[in-house]
Amino acid sequence: MSDDAWGQIRPAAARSPVEGQLRSDPGLVQRLRSEAQGAIGLAGKRATGAGAGSALKGYGSDVTRKALLLAGILPIALCCVPAYAQDLQDRPVEPPPPSETALPTDPDQIQFSADLAEYDSDGDIVTISGDVRLFREGNRLRADKVVWNRKTGQVLASGNIAVTNPEGDTAYGDQIELTDSLKDGAIDNMLVVLEQGGRLAAERGTRDANGVISVDRAAYTPCAVVDSNNCPKEPSWKITAVRVVYDPARKRMRYKGARVSLFGFATLPLPVFSHSVGAGNASGLLAPAIRYDAVNGFEVALPYYFALGPNRDVTVTPHVFTDALPMLQGEYRQLTGNGAFRVTGYATYSRRSDDFVSPTPSVSSEYAFRGYIDAAGRFQLDPNWSVSGSMRIASDRTFLRRYDISSDDRLRNNIRIERIDRNSMLSINGWAVQTLRPTESQGLQPIALPEIDYRLRFGQGLLEGGRFELQLNSLAIGRASGQDTQRAFASLRYDLRKLTAWGQEITLTAYGRGDLYNTDEIAATSQVSYRGLEGFRGRAIGAIALDMKWPLIGEAFGGVQRITPRFQVVAAPRIENFDIPNEDARSVDLEDSNLFALNRFPGYDRFEDSTRFTFGLDYALYLPGLSIEANIGQSYRLDSRPTILPDGTGMTDRLSDIVGRTVVRYKGFLTFTHRYRLDKDNIAIRRNEIDATIGSRDTFATIGYLRLNRNVDFALEDLQDREEARVGARVKVTRFWSVFGSAVIDLTNAEEDPASLADGFEPVRHRLGIEYEDDCLRLGVTWKRDYQTTGDARRGSSYLLTLALKNLGR
Question: Is the pTM of this model over 0.70?
Fold first, then answer.
């Protein structure tokens, strides 16, 4: 279309000669222009002479709000935020592109272009035809023809209609009919394509004076309606309804006579149904979950989401069972200006069993309240100060397992206040533990309040560039029916790191600490080595260490390899460890991670004394796509006197066991980690730990294996030997279908752990499932089996059905 065609006005009785007459007769042009202004409300600038002709041909004449479009054609664009369609697979015409010229600044004006504009003075009818394009405040219309009958007040747009609003949603139709007020209208054979991918189709749609949209015999889907070859396909799910009403003020879509169809099959009738449209965190139902197990029977969980504001919400989930009383679950979440927190709670009234020994325990006939609270939060008060905390409390030891909430056997509660800057850190911490293990007494569980730790780094540049670190620490542990301990210490550490001319990295460390302990009721601790002496006790600790690394780097196998011999000597005087209670250093074991540590005990209550040499080798090879990292080491203690380290830890004798680790990574496809400990006398494997992951993001397998064969004293419950295997996998069978599974197997036998009742192959639990997931639907079925019985949390199978639909609770 040439530039001369933009904005031309021709009377119905003078089609052919108009163009020439407009150019040759300025008077006729002015008269025709006046008639057109009276007919369709042109608000163009006044022009005379030859200038009038050029003004009419300019791109985009201005039309007043009352003229053609305000809430007639454009109301459809303004209301096409979620709409639905009669034929969702229709391929509509291209929507109108944005205007190439500046739009009018007056909101009462629109810009238009067309091949032809006609005015019938006898019928008082204005007709714009031929690739009609209208623009106003970001709204765009394309149609073949627009007709306005000024006598009847009817405005009609027809032919390949496409209306786009500022948000990018586009409405298509065959014909739009408007009333005289231009606020009420209807569209036939409507299809709306939302910017976010949803589609709404209907036979006919109307809009009333309040902006409420109503469509008849409609269908909606957010799913793709074409396949990878751009051919039409049935969407994964859609909603069909006799009538759909959209209220833009409330941003809510309501259905009457609706039915949800999955893969083309009608499944779930919804006589009255509604959901939010483009409202973000709007209130409504979330995806339900259906589950079955032998204890509770069939379970249906139907969560409802309440949007209390842009930064806070509540989700209430009733759980209904066929073989148990209902349970109510609630979760509150809030985001504040400096942090966030959430609180989750469960509550029910049911029977329970306190028989944790019998494989078929009897359940009490008396009903009691049962529940669980899980809360967590963190607040950053300023750039340095923060407060965080977590709380987990259950009414009894089997509630979490019976209702499949969690398999944890200990619940930790914590509150922490921290201040961190560049050179210092202050932490005030408190924690308590609730045990769910049948063999443990709650009265023996520790409550630490408070635990205070302060650290300060200073003196950089002093003493040849070394650095000091000061630490002040205090801890108070209490038990309802057990040993109580209070501890305070102050320590000073100095580290000096140097690089020699030969490339060796040498680190000199000096450490000194003074401790003060107070303890009582030590007889309540069954393990004598953990008790210490009752009353106040003091202890002085000192140690000095020299650590040398010598990295050697060069080319190998087309890549780069690094070989790093390492040697360390640590000297410490004899320390009276057994006078001090042991609260935090019980789980000691020689590993690759603590081989070169200044103190190989965890925590502070035990410190390794005497003089020892530690030697090892680090190796790394880096090739394109492949990396191999490994280390191995051993230590030798000069003092031959008995050590405080328990038998089986690998450090009891003067010469320690051999420990190491190997890590292999191949692109993003394979990760393999092997940690081991070998007996120094016969190279028997005392620790064998393997973790491997192989595969892609969609198809992968994980394998984990752990065997601790250390011959540890049976009385040391924190160091018991065990053996277990863990496997898991997910296989993507097709583009949308996948199968998954996992299992945990206890391989411990009586030889490894005399207290174990397992026969060397005892499944703990396993899970197997199949899942379908595409861009707008997730459907899965999972089978889970638990092989352990504790009270009323019995062994058996459970089945879970999950369904999540995009835009509907997902």
Answer: yes
Collapsed DSSP state (helix, strand, coil) of residue 658: strand
Say how many C-beta atoms besides its own lie within 10 A of residue 642's C-beta. Answer: 7
46 within some domain: yes
Of all residues in the chain, the percent with pLDDT exceeding 70 is: 80
Residue 358: exposure state from Cβ atoms within 10 A (0-12, 13-18, ≥19): exposed
Average pLDDT over residues 546-550: 98
Contacts of 435 (CB under 8 A, 6+ apart): 397, 409, 410, 411, 441, 442, 445
784 closest CA partner among 806, 771, 799: 799
- The two tokens of residue 565 are 């011999």
Tokens describing residue 407: 């398999």
Residue 11: strand, helix, or coil: strand
Q: Beta strands 110-113 and 61-63: pairing type? A: antiparallel
Tell me the two tokens of residue 483: 């040993």
Give the C-alpha separation, 240 to 255, whole Å.
Answer: 9
To 5 degrees, how large is the angle CA 592–CA 596–CA 599?
Answer: 110
d(CA 112, CA 135): 6
Q: Is 141 a member of any domain?
A: yes
End-to-end Cα spacing for the chain: 48
Among candidate residues 638, 721, 620, the one with its CA nearest the CA of residue 677: 721
**What backbone torsions phi and psi does residue 116 show, to the nearest 5 degrees?**
-155, 135
Q: Is it the case that residue 619 has pLDDT exceeding 60? A: yes
Query: What's the token pair of residue 155?
Result: 């405005």
Domain at 55, CATH number: 2.60.450.10
323-360 pLDDT, tens digit each: 999 999 999 999 999 999 999 999 999 887 665 555 55
Distance separating alpha carbons of residues 419 and 415, to the nearest angstrom: 14
What pLDDT is stored for residue 445 in this prediction? Answer: 94
Is 636:645 a contact under the CB 8 Å cutoff? no
Q: What's the domain count of the chain? A: 1
The answer to whether 45 and 94 have CB atoms below 8 angstroms apart is no
Give backbone dihedrals phi and psi of 751, rounded to 5 degrees, phi first: -70, -35
Range of the domain at 31: 3-278
Q: d(Cα 127, Cα 119) in Å, to the nearest integer?
A: 6
Parallel/antiparallel/unpaired status of strands 762-773 and 265-276: unpaired
Q: Taking the CA of residue 630 as centre, how many other CA atoms within 13 Å lie in the half-sphere pointing to its CB?
A: 11
Tell me the C-alpha distance between 359 and 790, whole Å: 8
Question: Do 7 and 59 touch, CB atoms closer than 8 A?
Answer: yes
Asked, for residue 82, whether it belongs to a domain, the answer is yes
Whether residue 739 is predicted with pLDDT greater than 50 in this model: the reply is yes
CA distances from 66 to 43, 107, 186 (A): 11, 12, 18
Is 571 contained in some domain?
A: no
Please spell the DSSP secondary structure of 266-279, one letter per residue: EEEEEEEEEEESS-
> In the chain, what's the furthest Cα-to-Cα distance?
122
Whether the ω angle into residue 450 lies within 30 degrees of 0, i.e. cis, is yes
Residue 522: what are its φ and ψ, rounded to 5°? -70, -20
DSSP 371: E
Which residue intervals of 67-211 are DSSP H helices?
73-78
Query: Strands 670-678, 658-666: parallel, antiparallel or unpaired by DSSP?
Result: antiparallel
Measured between alpha carbons, how far is 363 from 354 in angstroms, rounded to an integer?
8
If you average pLDDT over residues 140-169, what whole number do you get?
A: 79
